Amino acid sequence: MKKICDKNRCTGCSACINVCPKKCITMKEDEYGVLMPYINEKECINCNMCEKVCPENNPVEYKQPIKVFAGWSLNENVRKKSSSGGIAYEMYKYVIENNGIAVGTSFDKNLNLIHKIATNIEEINEFRGSKYVQSSIGRVYEEIKKLVKKGNTIIFIGTPCQVSGLKSFMGNKNIDNIITVDLICHGVPPIKYLKEYLKYINMYDKIDNISFRGENDGYITGYKKGQIVYKKYKKEDFYYNSFYNGLFDRENCYQCRYAKKERVGDITIGDFWKIGKEIPFNYDITDGVSLILINTYKGYKFLNKINTKIFLEERTLEEALKGNVQLNHPVLKNKQTERFKEIYKKYGLKEAIKNIE
Q1: pLDDT by residue (tens digit) across 201-222?
Q2: Closest CA to 217 of 130, 277, 284, 111
Q3: What whole-number distance in Å separates Cα of residue 51 and Cα of residue 104?
Q4: For 8-32, how does the pLDDT look when each residue is reduced to its tens digit (9 = 90+)?
Q5: How far apart are CA 276 and CA 294, in angstroms?
Q6: What is the DSSP secondary-structure string of 262-330?
Q7: What is the Cβ-side half-sphere exposure of residue 294, based on CA atoms within 13 angstroms?
Q8: Nearest to residue 206, comparing CAs of 189, 220, 193, 225?
Q9: pTM listed for this prediction
Q10: Distance (Å, rounded) from C-alpha 54 to C-alpha 77?
Q11: What DSSP state is assigned to residue 159?
């Protein structure tokens, strides 16, 4: 079977399915539930566009951060409902209020996490909160390209590999109107694990949204029409705890080439862990502090546009590196990962959980 790149390096960024002129590439789950590109060879015309666009087959253009900030939204309600100080929400909001387009993630009616386009404030509210699972890009890169041609300003927030996929699809040109923001990523488990886990705890049919951070920071929280119907502390929940312990990420996450201080987005955001531990930090903020790495002049100009909505304090890159492991190296593979995968492959998630707990 024709392959686009080495399976263990594939990030699932979906640049290949967006670039294919025959639309003969689809994302399908492998035996471990991992989304991988599959080529319908009967329709393939061997143009090799998929191989050429794949970031794993090409050098990645990294940028050294030029500024490092701690920050948060000045709106207390935004901080309360968002992850990491609410900076992402303020970025989305500014673009929407200035007739731009926001691209982020939300759960659909089948609890699939998807990247989608938002054109109003109500839609960006769905992007709030951290979702510790891989999102599906679908054909959103194609949609972005069409919007760019119409002159729209776009903000795209995603994992570094997704940002890299978008830039590769765009050809690293015609992106002046796209603000790319990459997340400090801990790794991404396949969506199938989360959905099967929700079925295992008898919550799949009882919720329509799920969050791991934000208003209920540190808890896996399930919602139904905005009301909390499930809430469990991260160390007491198998899925949440396993995520943090690197049990079931995609294989490429354990060798991620984006887990470094050099970045691919115009801006990088995440939590500013351990802030104030060595360098004084004279603020008592209980709703989270965002780490903001400015990697390009375009990113710096954009951040200045929202400076009336956020608090910023310049910090050092060294402090950021000490608090964020994924700015230094990829997530470490759990010693039980291979055992989990083999049990899952043969017997399913329920038996894998019983044998891992």
Answers
A1: 999 999 999 988 877 778 899 9
A2: 130
A3: 26
A4: 999 999 999 999 999 999 999 999 9
A5: 20
A6: SBSSSEEEEE-TTTTSSS------SS--EEEEE-SHHHHHHHHHTTTTEEEEE--HHHHHHH-GGGTSP
A7: 19
A8: 225
A9: 0.95
A10: 40
A11: -
